[in-house]
């Protein structure tokens, strides 16, 4: 568990050391020894906000501190912390601090601060977590795919499910799976999908993907969605994985398998630790 916590803390420290530089999610994730896809999902589950939000809040915190006690021009501070224009910086700064950058220079101006994270993973209680390890051959899914940002996916994907059913998509694809597949570290492809068999036609606007053969850790959830699914998902990252010695994450994808409205599974690709 200490190694897992140290990896995450290494990533946080790398961010802190480079807040005035261009930060690449792949470089950040490498400090934690996981892919950018898994790192962002783990970070969001553990912290309750995205890695992008963390970086943005830390930069705006430091920008506020600097403006309050220096004569540096607002545009120079904006550029230093990654903003292309003074207008975009002013909007973000005002939203975060509640005052404009110019007002931050006034004596007694009240600013907000977002402290650096300190990752600590601790053992709490004796809660049981149900899971199984399975080997599965390759299989294909067919469904509707759409790109989502890591930043907004939690809000946007449920809306897309609603749209899928409201527009009659459920008559073509019932939605047995929700499949996340990494694209470029900042966004990912999400499928509303069913199993696909090669003798079936592929409707216009739909596509297929092959899920590779491999080992999966399968975690069931029971109860109303998305609350029950999100609860299990959080436990995977902050309880099961940090304490798992036999397996590590593998593959830049994972599956949600829906059995009924209140029952399903989360499938996470893993591989044996050598």
Largest sheet: 9 strands, antiparallel
Detail the poorly predicted runs.
Answer: none
End-to-end Cα distance: 17 Å
Could you tell me the radius of gyration in angstroms?
Answer: 22 Å
Q: How does the overall form come out from the CA principal axes? A: globular
- Helix percentage range: 25-40%
CATH topology of the largest domain: Multidrug-efflux Transporter 1 Regulator Bmrr, Chain A
Number of strands: 9
Strand content: 15-25%
Please give the count of helices. 8
Q: What is the string of SSEs from the N terminus onward?
A: HHHHHHEEHEEEEHEEE
The average pLDDT value, as a whole number, equals: 89
CATH architecture name of the largest domain: Alpha-Beta Barrel
CATH class of the largest domain: Alpha Beta
Instruction: Tell me the CATH superfamily of the largest domain.
Output: Regulatory factor, effector binding domain
Structural class: alpha+beta
Task: Describe what you observe in this structure.
With 274 residues, the chain is an alpha+beta fold. It folds into two domains: 2-105, Homeodomain-like (Arc Repressor Mutant, subunit A), CATH 1.10.10.60; 132-272, Regulatory factor, effector binding domain (Multidrug-efflux Transporter 1 Regulator Bmrr, Chain A). Helix content is 38%, strand content 24%. The protein is built from eight helices and nine strands. Strands 1, 2, 3, 4, 5, 6, 7, 8 and 9 form a nine-stranded antiparallel beta sheet that branches. Helix 1 runs antiparallel to helix 2, helix 2 (25-31) packs across helix 3 (36-47) and helix 4 (51-69) crosses helix 6. The longest helix has 19 residues, at 51-69. The two termini are 17 Å apart.
